[in-house]
Amino acid sequence: MSDNEQLNLRDKVEEKIKTVFDPEIPVNIWELGLIYDVQITAENDVVVLMTLTAPNCPEAERIPVDVEKAIKLIHDVNKVKVIITFDPPWERSMMSDAAKLQLGFF
Q1: pLDDT for position 36
Q2: Calpha distance 94→101 (Å, rounded)
Q3: Using CA atoms, how far apart are residues 61 and 8, in angstroms rounded to an integer?
Q4: What is the mean pLDDT for each group of 10 consecutive residues in the chain (106 residues)?
Q5: Which domains occur in the chain, in start order?
Q6: Using an 8 Å Cβ cutoff, are 8 and 42 in contact?
Q7: Where do the H-state alpha helices sit in the chain?
Q8: Nearest residue to 30 (alpha-carbon basis) of 17, 13, 12, 48
Q9: Does residue 32 contact residue 23 with C-beta atoms inside 8 Å?
Q10: Structure confidence at residue 62 (pLDDT)
Q11: Is the CB of residue 78 less than 8 Å from the CB of residue 43?
Q12: Residue 5: what pLDDT?
């Protein structure tokens, strides 16, 4: 896969992640800053390193599954692995300006 195709796939992955929302917060998880890293291998496997707003998040089981399902909808993607971490712990400063504005933090 060329660098241009890899970049295009990364854009597609980002767009799919942006369709996933924490049901308690009306902002997608990308803008919330819950996605720490996205890696795409030469075989088009996708590995997402993400966190949750809190370790005891009631949606802890559902959100990673939703991320995996969304990314698997991309035709070029083979395998998807979502890894949850709490290091570093999520905090409001990780949100995008758009998310802060939408949630009234400005």
Answers
A1: 98
A2: 13
A3: 29
A4: 72 97 91 97 96 85 95 96 96 94 87
A5: 3-92 (3.30.300.130)
A6: no
A7: 3-17, 29-32, 62-72, 97-102
A8: 17
A9: no
A10: 93
A11: yes
A12: 65
